[in-house]
Amino acid sequence: MPHITVKPFDTACLKKGKYGKLQGTEVLFKAKDSFSSDELIAIKHENESFLLHLKKPLEEKPSSNTWLLKYDKVTRPLKVNLLKQAIADVSTGLNLDVLQSNITIHDTKVALSNKYEKSIEDFVDIEFPFESVAIEVGFGSGKHLLYQAQKNPERLFIGIEIHTPSAAQVLKQIQILDLKNIWVVNYDARLLLEMIPSNLCHQIFVHFPVPWDKKPQRRVISASFLEESMRVLAKGGRLELRTDSYKYFWYSMETFLGETVTKTAVEVRKNEALEVTSKYEARWLRQEKDIYDVYVTSIKKSESRRLDFNFSFGDIVYTKEILDKISYQAKIFDGFFIHFERLFQIDNDAILIKLAFGSFDRPEHKYIYLDKSTAYYFNTSPVKTMTNYKTHLKIMEYLNV
Ligand SMILES: C[S@@+](CC[C@H](N)C(=O)[O-])C[C@H]1O[C@@H](n2cnc3c(N)ncnc32)[C@H](O)[C@@H]1O
Questions:
Q1: pLDDT for res 110
Q2: Are 316 and 392 in contact (CB under 8 A)?
Q3: Is 161 annotated as a binding residue?
Q4: pLDDT digits (tens, 9 = 90+) for 328-343
C-alpha cells in the first residue's frame, strides 16, 4: 500500500484547499489524535473522500525521527492510484522532505473503471439487470468468480471481498477480460448481505473461508449469516460452502442444523472436484487434504426487506460537553455494542470520532464528523440494518448533550 516517510514538518502549513498540479486533491480538514501526536488528513479526490494517516513516532521513542504518511484502513478507497495521487499531491504541495517512497503513479496502467465497483450505498436502490444473480463471498484472487462469470454471461456475479488489494486486483482482471457481469464490492460480506433484496439470488458461494479458530466472531458463517443467506436466496437457491477445515465443516454443520432456520435442505459432499481450482484449493490438494462441500438450499419464499433507515444525526452538533460524555470503554447492549475508540480534534469547534459498533459478529468501523452546525458519518453511512439503526439511535443519545 502506498506510503512515504518524511522528515518532520510544521503541520500548521497544511491548510484546507486544493493540492497537486491538476488541483485534483482537496484537503477538507486535518484532525489531531487526542491520545498521540498522530494526525488524520481528510481528502476529497475524484468524488471520493478518505483519510490519510500521518503517523509520528511515539514520544518515548523519538530516536526514529521520521514520519509516515499512509492510508487509513477504515476509509481506504479501492483505487490505489487515488491514494498515491493524494499522498504525492500533499507531499509536493507542502514541499516535504521525502526520505522513502513506494509511490509511482502508473498513468499508463489500466485505469480502474467505476462501472463494476459498487459501494454499499449503491445497493439502496440498485437495479439488477440480469436474468439471475449469484454472490461470491471472499473471492480472494478471483479465480472462481472470473471463471463463473465467463461461463454464465447472462448471470450477474456480485463478488464481495473485504481485502482491498484483492478487490482491486480482480477489478483489473474484469476490465482486461472485458466482463460485463461482475460487480465487486469491497466490504464485509456479512454486512453487505443485509442490503441485498430478498429472493434475489440463485447461488451464494463461500469458498475456503478463513476458519478463525481463535476468533470465531470473525467467521463468515454464523447463524445470522445463514438466516440472511436464506432470505437473499430465491426458493431453490443454494448457499455453497467449500472448506478444507474439518473443524470449520463441523462448526458450519452445527450452524446449518441449528435453530435459526427451521426448515432447510442440507447436502454434504467430500472431495468433490469442481471445474475450477482456486489458489487455496490447489495448495490443499497438493497436501492431499480432504475438502468438504456443504450445500444449503432455501426452501421457501422470504419476506421483502425494509431499507429505509435514516442514519442522519438530526439536530446534534458539536459541543464541548460531548468530550466529557464519551468514554472509551466498549458499551454492551442487548444485541449490539458501541466502542468509541479514538477522538480527533479538528479545531476548537469540530471533532472526528473513530468508533466500532453494531452487532457482535458483524461490527461496523466508522468515523463521525461533528462541528457546530452539523454531524455525519465520514465517509460513508453504516449498512442499513435494523441492528445498525438501533445502535445509531443509541450513539445519538451519547452525542445529544
Ligand atoms: C482463505 S481466502 C479464500 C479465497 C478464495 N475464496 C479461494 O478459494 O481461493 C478467504 C478470503 O475471504 C476474505 N474474507 C474474509 N472475511 C470476509 C468477510 N467478512 N467479507 C468478505 N470477504 C472476507 C478474505 O479477505 C480472503 O480473501
A1: 43
A2: no
A3: yes
A4: 999 999 889 999 999 9
Q: Is the pLDDT of residue 57 over 90?
A: no
| CATH of residue 249 | 3.40.50.150
- Do the domain assignments include residue 236? yes
Higher pLDDT, 269 or 281: 269
**Residue 283 Cβ < 6 Å to ligand 1:** no
Mutation test of ligand 1: which of 73, 158, 160, 161 has the most ligand atoms closer than 8 Å to its C-beta?
Answer: 161
Asked whether the beta carbons of 376 and 313 are under 8 A apart, the reply is yes
Distances 121 to 90, 230, 322 between C-alpha atoms, Å: 28, 22, 29
Q: Identify the domain containing residue 134 by its residue range.
A: 117-297
Query: Which of ligand 1's atoms lies nearest the C-alpha of 209?
Result: 10
- Closest to 291 in 3D by CA, of 239, 238, 245: 245
Domain identity same for 193 and 326? no
Nearest atom of ligand 1 to the alpha carbon of 143: 9
Ligand 1 close to Cβ of residue 280 (< 6 A): yes
Q: What residue owns the CA closest to ligand 1's atom 11?
A: 138
User: Residue of the nearest CA to atom 19 in ligand 1?
Assistant: 188
Q: Are residues 13 and 147 in the same domain?
A: no
Residue 173 corresponds to which amino acid? Q
pLDDT in tens, 133-183: 999 999 999 999 999 999 999 999 999 999 999 999 999 999 999 999 999
Is the domain of 133 the same as that of 266? yes
Q: Quick one: pLDDT at residue 108?
A: 41
On whether both 30 and 166 belong to a single domain, the answer is: no
